[in-house]
Amino acid sequence: MGNIFRMLLLASLVLGTFAFAGFDSALKKQKFLSPEVAFQVKAVKKNDLIETKIIMADKIHIYDDSLHYRIISPSTLELAVKKPKALELDGDKVYAKELKVTIPVKEITSKVKGDYTLEIEFQGCSDAGICYQPIKKSFNFKGAEPGLFDKISSLTKEGNTAKIADVLGNESSFFIIILFFVFGLLLALTPCVFPMIPILSSIIVSQSGDEKPSVAKAFFTSLVYVVSMALTYTVVGIAAGLLGADIQTAMQNPWVLTIFAAMFVALAFSLFGYYEIGLPASWQSKISAASDEAGQKGGIVGTAVMGLLSALIVGPCVAPPLGGAVLFISHTGDALLGGVALFVMSMGMGVPLLLVGIGAGKFMPKPGGWMTAVSQVFGVMMLGLAIFMLGRILPDNITMILWALLFIGSALYMGIFESKEGEGMMKLFKLLAMVFLLYGASLFIGALSGANSILNPFEKFISGGKGTVEAKADKNGHLGYSVARLMKEVKASSKPVVVDFGKDSCTACAELDHITFPDPKVKKQLKKFTFIQVDLTANSEEDKALLKKFELFGTPNIIFFDKEHNYLPEKSLTGFIEPEAFAKHLESVLK
Q1: Cis before 74 (ω within 30)
Q2: Is 273 among the domain residues?
Q3: What are the b/e assignments for 209-243, b being 16+ CB within 10 Å?
Q4: Number of domains within the chain
Q5: Does residue 400 form part of some domain?
């Protein structure tokens, strides 16, 4: 009996050993491969093709609809690649063992300039029943060196001053000069330069007297004006770069703006014919004798002064190329290259003004009564420029009343209520006067209702008194920021942060507040950020410290922080930016 029991026990032990060995073997068979072993991804550039290969381990497959080939840098581009025929597995299309895909390089380089990064994304599963998380593999490739035109085209769209400063440090002098001249031509198409046209035109008309100006004389007057403007920008930029001072902010001082506005008012009344502005007769004779060869009759000094004032007061608050040049000068001390770049940019801005001079000399008709009417038109424009400058320091409703008075006064001056019969152009003239009268009256009513925008004087009636600019903070709501206070608010945010630096005297800042920030697409993106507006109008020591901390020049400037509160200098923007472009930029910050 005992022997039988021992035999049974021995048999059970043997069977148990074999059973455990089989179970252990099954466990080993169920051990899944790591993603690195299950999928081996390669991408190699050979001549005009990029050959990609995904090698899958045994009993591993990839789903066709999960497979994506895209460029992720320097921009995002989904590639339409030609894939081999897929296999059928339980109703799904899959690939197994090895998947080869070739991508023509020209498909990428025709749309992406410079070096680029290819990303391959897919999701695979094991036949044993496990599915891996989506896998992304990226490969960097050297692209064709972008040509001169491609580089310039890319940089003219750049709103980051630091990147433009890098170009100044890394590119040849020839490229920099061409780039900044193109910058100037593009700035010439912005509203910032438009006010300079009536100023220059009025100078040419006033200097011509009772004679038709020659092409040479009109062009020389324009050249003096433009060169004076260019030298002013150059000197201001070099001084700001070397001294670290925002000289343009000093020029936005209320006293300075008031004095210059008064000068434009005085010039306007001179154009209306109430008096003549000129130097003493003895001075005029000396200047005339010294400049007879140029045919300017003593007008060079006045033209140069007006060019200087235009550059400081009427010019743009700040532009990315100007900020980039200043940042480059401050970092390297190379005032020569930075100064030349600014001078060339300013001359590019002056090209339309030079064309005005040529046109005035070539196409201006013979002197006559029409010159009086032209002078009066320019006089009204001078008054408009004075209001434009005072609008930077006066309350919005007071500015609207001044604009209302200008338009109503222009309508009265045009004889809106006179009963003279007219035909042809005279009827159109009366129609224009009626438009001025109605618009002026609308501005006056809008100002009394508390409206702030001359483009939307009835905003209080339309929105029920709430206003239309939802994104614009109260003017006193974002004053007094210091570096410590700003960083405290940034660190307290659980979302990425957008910081907008602006001031009351900055036209581009107002455009951001009225056009860009209230845009529905922008507002949708801004909900994903903490939005902080910092007012630098006071130009206090704390304001200066903020600009120095983030290496900014003037306003407007917009900077960004990620969720971890890291400053993102490569994402910073300078100057006005269109709503659609800003919305896309916000999306890029979130990636």
Answers
A1: yes
A2: yes
A3: eeebbeeebbbbbbbbbbbbbbbbbbbbbbebbee
A4: 3
A5: no
CA 175 – CA 69 distance, rounded (Å): 35
Cα–Cα distance measured from residue 203 to residue 215, given in angstroms and rounded to the nearest whole number: 14
Q: What is the pLDDT along the chain (591 residues), one digit of tens a residue?
A: 444 544 444 445 444 444 444 444 444 445 678 898 999 999 999 988 999 999 999 999 999 999 999 998 877 889 989 999 999 988 889 999 999 999 999 888 888 877 889 999 999 999 877 899 999 999 999 876 666 666 666 666 666 676 677 777 777 788 888 888 888 887 777 666 766 777 777 777 666 655 666 777 778 888 888 888 888 888 877 877 776 555 555 556 677 778 778 877 887 787 777 765 554 555 445 544 544 444 444 467 777 877 777 776 555 555 567 777 777 777 677 788 888 888 988 888 888 888 877 776 565 555 555 556 767 777 888 888 788 878 877 888 888 899 999 999 888 888 888 766 656 667 777 888 899 999 999 989 988 888 777 777 887 777 554 444 443 433 334 567 889 999 999 999 999 999 999 887 677 787 888 889 999 999 999 999 999 999 887 778 888 888 888 888 778 889 999 999 999 988 888 878 889 889 988 988 887
Do 120 and 165 sit in the same domain of this protein? no
Task: Write down which residue in 95, 115, 141 finishes a domain.
Answer: 141
- Buried b or exposed e, range 519-531, using 16+ CB within 10 angstroms: beebeebbeebbb
Among 107, 141, 175, residue at a domain's last position:
141
Are 110 and 164 found together in one domain? no
Q: Do 162 and 129 fall within a single domain?
A: no
> Is residue 405 in some structural domain?
no
Strand bridging mode 530-535 / 497-502: parallel
Enter the pTM of the model.
0.56
Q: Do 73 and 209 belong to one domain?
A: no
**306 lies in the same domain as 339:** yes
CATH code of residue 573: 3.40.30.10
Domain that holds residue 336: 155-370
Whole-angstrom CA distances from 46 to 102, 110, 246 are: 10, 18, 53
What are the residues facing 93 on neighbouring strands?
A: 88
Neighbours of 125 (CB within 10 A): 19
Angle CA(11)–CA(16)–CA(19) in degrees, nearest 5?
Answer: 130
Considering just the CA atoms, what is the radius of gyration of the chain in Å? 35
Residue keyed to tokens 């990064």 = 117
Alpha carbon 571 to chain centroid, angstroms: 11
| Domain shared by 501 and 573, yes or no | yes
Q: Does the residue 427 lie in any domain?
A: no
Q: How many CB atoms lie within 10 A of CB 402?
A: 18
Nearest CA-CA partner of 232 in 217, 251, 253: 251
Same domain flag for 237 and 365: yes
Residue 331 CA to residue 399 CA, distance in Å, equals 40
Instruction: Please list the residues that pair with 568 across neighbouring strands.
Output: none
Q: Which residue in 378, 369, 387 sits closest to 440, CA to CA?
A: 387
Say if residue 129 is in the same domain as residue 229. no
SS3 192: coil
